[in-house]
Amino acid sequence: MKKNSIVLIIGLMSLALIGVLAMQFYFLRDSYRQKSQLFDESVNAALTAVAGKLERREVVDFAKVQQERNIEKSKQEQAKQQQLTEQLQLQTQIENLRGKLEQIYQKYKLEEDRLKATYPNIINIENWFYETYVKRTQYQDLVEINIVKTPTNGLYYQEDVIVSATKTIPRIEAKDDSTRFLIVHIDDFKRLLGKSIVALPPRSNPKLSKRIFELETKLNKLSKKNAGYGFNVYDSVAMLGGKKADYIEDVAIGMELAKRPLKDRLNIIIVQELLKEELIHRDIKAPFNIEIWSTSNILLNNILNEAELNNPINTTKYSTALFKGDVGAAPGKLTIYFPNKKAIIADNMSYLLLPMLTLLFLLVGCFAYTLIIIFRQKKVSEMKTDFINNMTHEFKTPVATIMIASESLKDPDINADHKRVQKLANIIYDENVRLGNHIERVLDLAKLEKETLKLDREDVHINDLVAAVTDSMQLRMQNIGGKFSVDLAATKDIVVGDELHFSNVFYNLMDNAIKYSKGDLHVNISSKNIGDNIVITIADNGIGMSRDHLQKIFDQFYRIPTGNVHNVKGFGLGLSYVQDILRRLNGRITVKSEKDKGTTFEVILPVKK
C-alpha cells in the first residue's frame, strides 16, 4: 500500500472519529440541558408545596390554640365549639383532598413535561376528537395535520402544528378522563413521516373533586349557621384560606398572625423534613442547603451535609415566598440550593455515559488496531519484497552455473574429454541439489503456515543428533578458519520429536553462526539438564546484533538490513522455521546478543519421562 493511500485512510478515519465525538458531545449537552430543566421544575414545585404546607400548618395550629382557649372560656358554647370543630375537620379534610389533587396534577405535569421535552412536535387533542376520528380506523383519513408559520419579532417565524378534521361527522363523546397527545414525526424538510398517540393519566380525580364540593357545601352551611353567633375561631381559618373575606374580625386575626416575628412562625427542623419529603417524592435525594430570609437579612440556615457542599456563590438558588396569605407583602422567603447540582444531573445520566464511553473506547481501539494492521501489513509487504529479491539472487546463481555447465557440454572438444564432462555433470548435479534445497525450505515454511506439515513422534537422542550436525559442518568451519567447542554434558538427552526437523533446527543455528562470523570464529556448543528439560546452547563470537533487531529475528522474511550488499546468503526464513518447529514439538528458543560481541541461542526441550 502506498504512503499516500495510508495517509488518506488515516485522515478519513480521524475525520469520522472526530465526527462521532462531536455528535456524542452534542447529544450529551442537549440531554444535560433537558435534565437540568426538569430538575429545576421539580425543585420549584417542591418549594411551592412546602410553602403551602407551612402556611396551612400555622393556620391550623393557631386555630387549635384559639379553639382550646374558647372551650376553656365558656362551657356554654360547647355546642358551638363542636360545630366549629366539625368545620375545622371539614376544612382539614378539604385541604387534604386538595393536597391529593395537587399531587395528582403535579405527577401529571411532570409526565407531560417529560413528554414535551422528548417530542417537540406534540399536540394535545380532545378525547372526543380521539374517539371520533383517531380511534376509528375508517375515519383516520379525515385527520389533517398542518404546519403553520406565525411571524414573531423581526424576521423570524414560529412553526406550530395544527390538527383538524377535513370533514365534520357525528361526535362520539369521551369515554374516559385521560389526556391524549398526538406526536407528529417530521423530517428536516418539514415533511410528515408519521404520527402516534400517547395517553397520560387524568389531570384530576373527579371523585375527589366531587367529595371536595360536597364538603365545601356542608362547610358553607355550617358557616352560615354560625354567622349569627358572631366571630369564631374557624372564621379566621376560613378567611386565611380565602373563603370569608367579608368578616372584618378575620382581617384582625390575620393581622395578628402576621405581626408575629418570622423566626417564631417557623421551625427549621420541620421545614427541613418537609423539604426532604417533597424532594424525595420527586426522586431528588441529594444534600442541599436551606436559607430563610426576612426582607434582606438571613434568619436561619441549615446544611444537611457540609462535607459534600462547595462554595455556593456560583450555584443556582431556588426561592419561594413564605406566608403569601398575609396582609401586604410576604414577610420572607425560603431558599435552597444544591452546590453539587452538576454531579446530581450527571449521576442521573450515568446510564447514558457508560454505553457511550464503551462505544467510544471500542471505536478508538478499532481505529488503533486498524492502523497497527496497516503498518504491519506494509512492513510485511516490504519484507516479502526483500525476500523475493533475496530469493531471486539465491536462485540466480545455481541457475547461471547450470546454464554455463550445460553450454560447455555442447562443445565437442569438452564433450570428448570424459573427466571434464564428469566434472561438469557433478557441478550441474550439485547446483540442482542446492536449488532443490532452497525450494524445499520455502515449501516447508508454506506447510508450516497451512498446518499441513506432518511431524514424526519418535525418541531422539539430542546429544548424538547435535554431534552429527556439528561433524557435518566441520568442513565449512575449517574453510573459514574457525572451530567448534563441543561439551554435551546432559545425562538425560532423549526427547520425543522429529529427528529430521530437529537436525534442520541445529543446522540453521550453526549455519547462522558461520554466516555472520568475523575473523577468528569460535562456536561453543553444549548441553545440560535443568529440571525436566535439556538445554542446548550454541554461542558464537560473531558480529552479533542490536536490541532492535533482536526482537524481530524470528519474524518471517526478516533479515538484518545490509543495503544492496549480498555477502550473506539467505531468505530470512531460517529462524522463523526454527521457532515454529520447536513450538510444535513443545520446545522453545531464547536468544541473547550484543553488537560485535556475538550471539547465544538456547534451545529448551522437555526430556522423555
Description:
The protein has 609 residues and is an alpha+beta fold. It contains 17 helices and 16 strands. It has helices at residues 3-73, 78-118, 127-134, 206-227, 233-240, 248-259, 262-265, 268-281, 341-348, 350-409, 412-416, 418-450, 462-472, 474-479, 499-515, 547-550, 574-584, and strands spanning 122-125, 143-151, 157-165, 179-186, 192-200, 289-294, 297-303, 317-322, 332-337, 458-461, 483-488, 494-497, 522-530, 533-540, 588-594, 598-606. The longest helix is centred in the first third of the chain and has 71 residues, at 3-73. The chain starts with a helix and ends with a strand. Residues 230-234, 236-249, 304-310 and 562-568 have low confidence and may be disordered.
Task: Throw out a few tags for this protein.
single chain, 609 residues, alpha+beta, 17 helices, 16 strands, histidine kinase, phosphoprotein
Helix and strand topology:
Layout: H1 3-73, H2 78-118, E1 122-125, H3 127-134, E2 143-151, E3 157-165, E4 179-186, E5 192-200, H4 206-227, H5 233-240, H6 248-259, H7 262-265, H8 268-281, E6 289-294, E7 297-303, E8 317-322, E9 332-337, H9 341-348, H10 350-409, H11 412-416, H12 418-450, E10 458-461, H13 462-472, H14 474-479, E11 483-488, E12 494-497, H15 499-515, E13 522-530, E14 533-540, H16 547-550, H17 574-584, E15 588-594, E16 598-606
Parallel strand pairs: 11-13
Antiparallel strand pairs: 1-4, 2-3, 4-5, 6-7, 6-9, 8-9, 10-12, 13-14, 14-16, 15-16
